[in-house]
Design the sequence.
C-alpha cells in the first residue's frame, strides 16, 4: 500500500465520518489545510478495506468489511458549502483547481530545497524561489550562501516570465529528487516577488538583500522598498481600519509586536482601544520582561499578514510608504 500523506489521510477520515461531521471539522481548519484536503478528496475514488483500515487505526476507529466510496467533486462541494458557506467554499474550490505540481515545493522541507539548489545556477535558483510562497522563499533565501543572496534577489527582481523550457529543465531534476510533476511557463512580477519575499524575511536578511541590490541598481531597490509593507506602516491606516484590524489579531501577538513599535504606531493603536483595554495591554507588555527579537518579529509579521488580507478584501486601506499610492 502506498504511503499516504497527512492531508490524504484527513480526506479519507472526512469521507468516513459523513457530510455533517465533515463540515463541522472543516470549519476549524485553516484555509491552506482545507485546500490540501480538497485536492485529495477530489482525486480519491475508492479505497480497499485494508487501506481504509490502516488510516482508521491511526485514529482508533473501526470500519465494516468491504470497499468504501471516497470523495469525488460532488462530495467535495457538498461538505465545503455546508461547512464554509457559498463564498468561502467557491474560493477554496477555485484555489484547488489552480493547484499546480510545482506548488508542492511549498510543502517540501526548506533544507531539502536549499540542498537541491546548492548545485544549480543562480538563475535557476531565482526561478524556483519565484515559484514558492513568499514565506517559504524567505526561508530558503536566508539559508543560501551570503555571496548568492543578493545575486538571486536581483535576478528575481528582473523576472517577467519563466519560459516553458526552463520549467521543464527544473522539473526533470525535481522529478528524481523531490518527486514533483510537470508544469507550464508563468508570468512573474519580479520586483513585487522580491518585496513579498523580503516582507516575510528576518530583518537582517531584508537589510542585507536591499543593500546588495542598492549597490547594483539603486532605482530597483527603491522600487522594491515602495512595494514592501512593514509593521510600522500600520500607522497609515485610518481609525476605522485600525479598529477592524484590532478585532482580527490576538492580544498575545499585539503585546509582543508593540515591544519595538514606533511611538506613532503605539499612539494610533491605543487611540482605537478602550481605556480599560489599553491599560490591560500596557500591563501585559510590562509584565513580559525581556523577549526574543525573533518572537517580536514573528508577532509583527502575523499582524502584517492579517492587515494585508483585510486590505485585499477591501476592508481597510493601507497607504504606500511615503507615497499617495495604495499597497495592493
Sequence:
Amino acid at each position: 500500500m502506498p504511503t499516504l500523506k497527512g492531508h490524504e489521510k484527513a480526506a479519507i477520515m472526512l469521507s468516513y465520518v459523513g457530510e455533517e461531521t465533515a463540515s463541522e471539522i472543516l470549519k476549524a481548519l485553516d484555509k491552506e489545510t482545507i485546500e490540501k484536503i480538497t485536492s485529495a478528496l477530489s482525486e480519491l475514488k475508492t479505497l480497499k478495506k485494508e487501506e481504509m483500515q490502516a488510516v482508521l487505526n491511526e485514529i482508533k476507529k473501526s470500519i465494516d468489511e468491504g470497499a468504501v466510496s471516497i470523495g469525488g467533486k460532488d462530495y467535495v462541494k457538498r461538505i465545503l458549502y455546508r461547512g464554509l458557506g457559498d463564498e468561502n467554499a467557491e474560493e477554496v474550490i477555485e484555489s484547488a483547481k489552480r493547484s499546480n505540481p510545482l506548488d508542492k515545493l511549498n510543502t517540501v522541507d526548506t533544507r531539502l530545497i536549499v540542498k537541491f539548489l546548492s548545485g544549480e545556477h543562480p538563475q535557476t535558483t531565482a526561478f524556483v524561489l519565484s515559484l514558492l510562497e513568499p514565506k517559504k522563499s524567505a526561508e530558503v533565501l536566508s539559508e543560501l550562501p551570503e555571496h548568492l543572496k543578493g545575486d538571486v534577489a536581483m535576478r528575481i527582481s528582473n523576472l517577467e516570465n519563466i519560459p516553458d523550457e526552463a520549467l521543464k529543465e527544473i522539473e526533470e531534476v525535481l522529478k528524481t529528487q523531490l518527486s514533483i510533476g510537470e508544469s507550464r511557463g508563468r508570468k512573474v512580477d519580479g520586483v513585487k516577488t522580491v518585496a513579498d519575499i523580503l516582507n516575510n524575511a528576518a530583518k537582517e536578511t531584508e537589510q542585507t538583500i536591499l543593500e546588495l541590490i542598492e549597490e547594483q541598481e539603486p532605482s530597483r531597490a527603491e522600487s522594491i522598498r515602495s512595494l514592501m509593507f512593514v509593521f510600522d506602516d500600520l500607522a497609515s491606516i485610518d481609525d476605522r481600519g485600525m479598529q477592524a484590524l484590532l478585532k482580527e489579531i490576538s492580544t498575545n501577538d499585539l503585546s509582543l509586536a508593540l515591544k519595538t513599535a514606533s511611538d506613532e504606531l503605539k499612539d494610533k493603536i491605543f487611540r482605537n482601544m478602550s481605556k480599560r483595554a489599553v491599560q490591560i495591554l500596557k500591563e501585559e507588555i510590562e509584565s513580559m520582561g525581556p523577549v526574543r527579537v525573533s518572537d517580536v518579529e514573528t508577532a509583527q509579521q502575523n499582524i502584517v499578514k492579517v492587515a494585508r488580507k483585510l486590505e485585499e478584501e477591501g476592508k481597510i486601506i493601507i497607504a504606500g510608504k511615503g507615497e499617495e499610492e495604495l499597497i495592493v
